[in-house]
Amino acid sequence: DxxxxxxPRHEVTEMGQEVTLRCKPxxxxxxxxxxRQTMMRGLELLxxxxxxVPIDDSGMPEDRFSAKMPNxxxxxxxxxPSEPRDSAVYFCASSxxxxxxxxxxxxxxxxxx
Amino acid sequence: xxxxxxxxxxxxxxxxxxxxxxxxxxxxASNYFPWYKQELGKRPQLIIDIRSNVGEKKxxxxxxxLNKTAKHxxxxxxETQPEDSAVYFCAASxxxxTYKYIxxxxxxxxxxx
Lengths: 113, 113
Description:
The complex is a heterodimer.
Chain A: E1 5-7, E2 10-13, E3 19-24, E4 31-38, E5 42-50, E6 53-56, E7 65-71, E8 74-79, E9 88-95, E10 103-104, E11 108-112
Parallel strand pairs in A: 2-11
Antiparallel strand pairs in A: 1-3, 3-8, 4-5, 4-9, 5-6, 7-8, 9-10, 9-11
Chain B: E1 4-7, E2 10-14, E3 19-25, E4 32-38, E5 45-51, E6 56-59, E7 62-67, E8 72-77, E9 86-93, E10 101-103, E11 107-112
Parallel strand pairs in B: 2-11
Antiparallel strand pairs in B: 1-3, 3-8, 4-5, 4-9, 6-7, 7-8, 9-10, 9-11
């Protein structure tokens, strides 16, 4: 099992640019989660998909953030336009169902200059 | 709102000693409590979890105890080894049987050789 795969691992870009983070969940997992981790706020849930449908996006900080899951094996988190305060590590996690343990990917370390 | 408090924030133990990390949650409906280990620059990794219908769960050197009445749960690591050094996060589900976790602020465990 390859686990949850995220790309890129690191991203450095200038403020105002569009940033796209990608995630491939574990095969067969029906639930997918995007988290953000910062020193100040810890691990925060941004959005949750179940069977490719966004169920809860109450953690998405602003309209600049959007997420999609076009199929069961791929999801994106987009920030447009990016700002320095968006700098963080973004994790994707998946679980077999919404009631099963969540397994995290290796994360994307995002730096907005 | 829902809250998870985690103590201590840092913990140093001698190799071979035991380590205990404690968490307190506020939502009496919480029924799932995972623990994650995160090494520097790596993903949170699920190490053990417990559901509210049991009071204790063990997996080799790791155990978790749950006191529903007092709304607290603890992670116990026995015979600590240098590779146990990491940040440990507790989490509690929000409500019963939900996907949403509130994470603790983390405990940085250092095992001294």
